[in-house]
Amino acid sequence: MAKKETKKRAPLFHIIKRGRDALPWYFGMLVRAIAVVAALLVCGVLITLLTGKNPLQVYGSMIDGVFGSSRRIWNMLQSLSMLLCVSLAVTPAFKMRFWNIGAEGQVLIGGLACTATMMFLGDKLPLWLLLTVMTVASMAAAMVWALLPAVCKAYWNTNETLFTLMMNYVATQLVAYFLKVFVKDGSGVLSPMPQYGLPVIGGHAYLLNVLVVVLLTVAVYIYLRYSKQGYEISVVGESENTARYIGINVKKVIIRTLLVSGAICGLAGLLLVGGTNHTINTSTAGGRGFTAIMVSWLGKFNPLYMILTAFLVVFLERGAQQVSTDFRIPSAISDIVTGIILLFIIGCEFFLQYRVVMRKNGKEGA
Amino acid sequence: MKKLLAMLLAAVMLFSLAACGGLGGSAMTESPLPESKLTVDYEIKDDFKIGYICLHDEQSTYDLNFLNAADAVTEALGLKDDQVIIKANVEEGNACYDAAADLVDQGCDIVFANSFGHEDFMIKAAEEFPDVQFCHATGTKAHEKKLPNYHNAFASIYEGRYLAGIAAGMKLNEMIEAGEITAEQAKMGYVGAFTYAEVISGYSSFYLGAKSVCPSVTMEVQFTGSWYDVNEEKNAAEALIARDCVLISQHADSMGAPGACEAAGVPNVSYNGSTYESCPETFIVSSRINWAPYFNYIIKCVNTGAAIDTDWCGGIAEGSVVLTGINADAAAEGTLDALKKAVEDLKAGTVKVFDTSKFTVDGVAYTGDAVVDGIFEESKAQSAPYFDLKIDGITRLNEKF
After folding, report:
1. Whether the predicted pLDDT of B229 surpasses 90
2. What mean pLDDT comes out for the span B217-231?
3. For residue A150, which of A46, A258, B105, B346 is within the disulfide window of CB 3.0 to 4.6 Å?
4. Spatial CB neighbours of A136, under 8 Å, sequence gap ≥ 6
5. Who among B105, B120, B140 is closest to A71 (CB)?
6. Under 8 Å between Cβ of A130 and A114
7. Could you tell me the domains of chain B?
8. Alpha-carbon distance A257 to A58, whole Å?
């Protein structure tokens, strides 16, 4: 049987990465702004169709929910700091193309270590020493949680995505288990211990958290941008072979970077338990470990952009909460709105980086 | 012309379909213990505001029960939209304090929260805002804290479960009489969330209700370790059915257990509202707490300047415990009349749920602190249940939660 010769045909369109024809930065910003506006318009139409509410009122309510009072602004800053903190934690690993989706578990295990320290050493140590032990314990526990998958990846090339994901469940169950052990009345709810919490400065409960994360953002920015280790991370991320060729110890970089990632997750656990809730439960991390991935990715692994993307996510979250309170509409609708806005933003990022080339009429693909 | 005819035909068919749906009818009887009408004998101040904090939203049967009660009170009192603020999906952490404080900022006179884990953060807010009343369902700390503006509330739902247990016992009797099972095989299964007193008090009263009409009954309890886990609850119910339990009840918030019962054709006594729609073959009856009387009570106190009880436990008399109608297709004959009589007995006090002459612990009658005149006084010292005895006739299949 003769093979049928198939005619080579060009597809209707193909997608190419923008290289030298990259768009100027102001054009990119304009496109992003248009995407957000377009997303808001689509959401507006959808809200009106589904609920019969005036979309302008809905957006007004979102803004009111985020900025409506000084307490709300503080709460927003707190949410922003916590999300940004976890996002900063996953960023070095992501930049290295190490898909650490275990931040949720790393934060929780850090928080668990912090809780245990507060419970068992709270009345035994002077406050300054207690706070030091809390910090060290939280960071160390989370570093161990990040170290395990890192070592396995570095030496046996295991799949870090699955490994870090599974570690989340282990951490959650450990928290559930220790709550059972710690709480003697069997209710599984641990009373807060504000007396052993991080100090309150300036009369604002969340000011310390915010300041710590501001400093951290600057530190991570400098670390990734200007330090030798940061450079090594980018090289390993671009190509492990290149890294090896120029004499970078890839194993060492993977392990070291994950230790940094884990340490920052531990810090987030410390801030959530020691600086916010003064207790722990299985939802203390609150899904931030996963939302952080989106924040980091949308912010192109740049800590300064990530402030904006984290703000966007927090604004949508808190705003949507206010909307469901004001209009008694199910929170599912708020989730839909958030989803649409993110879809538009991610979509516009795609078209800013890639170009769609249509098949030219009458010409066969060369 | 043809088109018009076709349309007419379609319309006629549609109508006949709708009519069939209506004619099919429901096997549900009236309720032996229905929701009572709220009595509103006070004036509401124009600037009065109440804020509710819920752990989840309408999608959880637990929270839906609170939201429905809140709506019922709003309607009965004629509250305006801006007098009621509902914050749903509030985590059991400092977020609860933030939500409560935000409600105070908006001028709420009462802040109510519905989840056990909210309690410490409600207390934190109550300490900070002494002019606002903080009310918390299911909590246990108000009587220790002794804050003038912090209050716990619950309902004597054990009475509701006892009544539901009577319906279960009558169903077992019917099976025994029909020769489907022997008296010794009258074993019920119970899917519980955790080994808390709230759950133990619930299944013990359910069991005692059944035992009051079917003396040979035994029961096995399987815990799931979660308040809402469809799969675990379904698995637990299936495991109990596989162990020859002939009737199932549950204390968890998903459709897992009732669904498994409907699939297996095993009668089910439900909780937190009717599951008749999804389980028309097996649903017998369901008890639930009606929170509307409590909301009405605290709103009345605030508007008339009265103090709110530190611990409030509503019973049948207050309208806090209600039953759904009975599914005549699944329940034993005469269940409705029997339950009506039992309601009267409980109201009159001639029958007590935790009567120590009616149960034993390790073979002997229980004589502990809470026992007064042979009755274990549930929900007296605090509103939340504390009956957590392991009474004879009930076997726990697992203990880990």
Report:
1. no
2. 90
3. A258
4. none
5. B105
6. no
7. 50-155+291-314 (3.40.50.2300), 157-288+323-396 (3.40.50.2300)
8. 43
